[in-house]
Write a structure and sequence with these properties.
Blueprint: E1 2-7, E2 15-16, E3 31-34, H1 39-50, E4 54-59, H2 67-77, E5 81-85, H3 92-105, E6 111-114, H4 116-120, H5 122-128, E7 134-136, H6 140-149, E8 160-164, E9 167-170, E10 193-198, E11 206-215, E12 218-219, H7 230-233, E13 239-240, H8 243-255, E14 260-263, H9 272-284, E15 290-295, H10 305-310, E16 313-321, H11 325-330, H12 337-349, E17 354-361, H13 368-380, E18 385-390, E19 392-393, H14 398-405, H15 411-414, E20 419-420, H16 421-424, H17 431-452, H18 454-465, H19 470-478, H20 494-498
Parallel strand pairs: 1-4, 1-5, 3-10, 5-6, 6-7, 11-14, 14-15, 15-16, 16-17, 17-18
Antiparallel strand pairs: 2-3, 7-8, 8-9, 10-11, 12-13, 19-20
Helix pairs in contact: 1-6, 2-3, 8-9, 13-17, 17-18
The protein binds cobalamin (B12) and iron/sulfur cluster.
Length: 512
């Protein structure tokens, strides 16, 4: 069969590399994009080929892979199935409109969607968008080939949610894949796109022009932070590929010339033994690339950091989240401030070039003093970079359920929205106050950085300076202080809209 695999992305997280920065020629017909590759479809394409299917991939960051081009390709090539892949609620409107357009042009070609948001909202999506025929819940490696073999018998495909006449049918859940070593490595060559290592920001923050890709070595996370839907997506399990399988892929990437790899694992740092095997393998094989990953502060085996550094790990991102234990506990983060300090200082002591801290502000019960404490904490830590985002809530997270129980969110009407907690939760400071505090906090942090650690700040700016124009570096530095333009803005819950409220009724709830 012929299958179109289309990745629909959020325009906020990709940009064409400006011509003046493009110092090497990618080759005929290829473009350069600052952003992450679409690892979901890159993973599924070779699996489908192994089953004898023909696959064509599209990624909407490519100027020639927009809705009209995909529709034209559908008309010309008449695929048997169109599979749309997307990550989050912010892209759902674009997916819907693409599905509607494709369905209009070719009503008989089935459209299946998958990815994180689709997994959590399968029945809702089918109820909402008639152009989408079915949803694949969870991992696609086994589900998609099964679906293609049983187009005439969708009821037999575990994990499929489909329409039987007017009725939405949810088949039995497909078990999680037991052996992640059984699949071929992702296809990183068929898309005519070279991805550039950059920060996912709307300023062209290019880190290097090295050949860049992402990789996933494990899936899931056993923790249960209230704002995260990984536990529900991965059903609370952490599964991993063997170190040999991972090293095989790394060797291939190395031989293909990749010099920068970002591990998109939810929690790469969970298992010391495995980290050690992978790192030793990288060192023994003399693999040339630099790599980065994310993980929890409590899992960093201190004895692994020197090995990670030796194995060319140059970037580590920690979910720090807050500078007070009270807020960490409210988020069910299950980590202490001491652990954060220890992990960050050890990472720097052992020479990891860039250590990043993810923080959230505007959490339930957080006061202005708490926010300030987070910025002070960040200033004290030896972090190289940091981001302070207002806490958001997505369907599938424990916090979403709490909001349903508290009557803040109406699941039936709000399922496809995303919210900033400060816009909707009376126990959170207003967005205006959170933003005002953030401005002040950033000012404090920048001042401490520039005057307290001038050499490190200079070195960091030099990394950016290598590939960015001065004006863009200034824009980057200024970016925390200005409003971002989002493709899909956060919403308000149906109940607030009904009552004509732009702010939750905070009267009875103190946030100071
Ligand atoms: C890397 C990443 C990013 C990268 C982008 C990656 C890219 N390709 O461009 C960046 C940093 C840009 C990013 C941005 C955002 N992200 Co993000 N991201 C991730 C992360 C960590 C890994 C994704 C990944 O590479 N997975 C590896 C591949 C192999 O998995 P996959 O794509 O899911 O594909 C598998 C299955 O889903 C399935 N599948 C995929 N497509 C299809 C299609 C069909 C038809 C079928 C049957 C199956 C199928 O099969 C694949 C193999 O098993 C995930 C966490 C996670 N574990 O998924 C969060 C995650 C997806 N992101 C999330 C969020 C919230 C966002 C943002 C909205 C953040 C923000 N506030 O701005 C934005 C917007 C994203 C968007 N709409 O494009 C949430 C989604 C929550 C939700 N319910 O909406 C997640 C789950 C993180 C979390 N902790 O909650 N993200
Ligand atoms: S935020 Fe990180 S540690 Fe918490 S549940 Fe999600 S993946 Fe796990």
């Amino acid at each position: 069969m012929k299958v179109f695999l289309v990745y629909v992305r959020d325009e906020n997280f990709c940009r064409l590399l400006p011509k003046e920065m493009d110092r090497s020629n990618s080759g005929k017909g290829r473009i350069k994009v600052m952003g992450f590759p679409p690892l979901g479809i890159q993973t599924l394409a070779p699996v489908l080929r192994q089953h004898g299917h023909r696959v064509r991939m599209f990624d909407t960051c490519h100027p020639q892979m927009q809705a009209e081009h995909i529709a034209q390709a559908v008309a010309e090539e008449r695929p048997d199935v169109i599979a749309l892949s997307f990550l989050s609620t912010t892209t759902y409107p674009a997916v819907k409109s693409l599905a509607q357009r494709l369905k209009l042009g070719a009503p008989q070609i089935p459209i299946i969607v998958g990815g994180a948001f689709a997994t959590i909202n399968s029945d809702r999506i089918l109820g909402d968008c008639p152009a989408i025929d079915c949803v694949g819940v969870g991992e696609g490696e086994e589900l998609l080939p099964d679906y293609l073999s049983n187009l005439a018998d969708p009821g037999s495909v575990a994990g499929l949610v489909w329409r039987n006449g007017g009725e939405i049918v949810e088949n039995v859940l497909r078990p999680l894949i037991g052996d992640l070593n059984q699949f071929p490595y992702p296809d990183r060559t068929s898309l005519p796109i070279d991805f550039i290592e950059s920060l996912p920001l709307d300023v062209p923050a290019v880190l290097s022009l090295d050949k860049f890709c992402t990789m996933q070595t494990s899936r899931g996370c056993p923790y249960a932070c209230i704002y995260c839907d990984i536990p529900s997506l991965a059903r609370g399990k952490w599964r991993y590929r063997s170190s040999e399988h991972v090293l095989g892929e790394m060797q291939q990437l190395n031989d293909m010339g990749y010099r920068s790899i970002y591990l998109t694992d939810d929690h790469f740092l969970l298992n010391r033994k495995r980290i050690s095997e992978v790192c030793r393998g990288i060192i023994e094989r003399r693999l040339q690339f630099q790599w980065g990953c994310e993980g929890r502060v409590d899992a960093v085996a201190v004895d692994q950091l020197p090995l990670m550094k030796k194995a060319n790990c140059n970037f580590l991102a920690f979910g720090v989240e807050a500078g007070t234990q009270k807020v960490l506990d409210r988020l069910n983060k299950k980590q202490t401030l001491k652990q954060v300090e220890h992990a960050v200082s050890e990472a720097k002591r052992h020479g990891i070039a860039r250590v990043h801290g993810f923080f959230v502000i505007g959490s339930p019960g957080e006061t202005e003093e708490d926010i300030l404490a987070s910025f002070r904490f960040a200033a004290r830590l030896k972090l190289d970079t940091f981001g302070f985002n207002r806490l958001c809530v997505y369907r599938g997270t424990p916090l979403w359920q709490e909001y349903i129980d508290r009557g803040v969110i109406d699941d039936a009407r709000d399922w496809d929205k995303w919210f900033k907690c400060s816009d909707i939760d009376p126990s959170v400071l207003s967005s205006e106050r959170v933003n005002r505090r953030r401005m002040k906090g950033y000012a404090l942090l920048f001042a401490r950085r520039i005057f307290g650690r001038p050499i490190r700040t200079y070195k960091l700016l030099r990394i950016f300076g290598r590939h960015m124009k001065k004006s863009d570096i200034l824009k980057l530095l200024w970016s925390p202080f200005r409003r971002r333009t989002l493709t899909r803005k956060p919403d308000l819950p149906a109940r607030m809209i009904e009552l004509g409220l732009e702010e939750p009724e905070r009267g009875a709830v103190s946030t100071m």
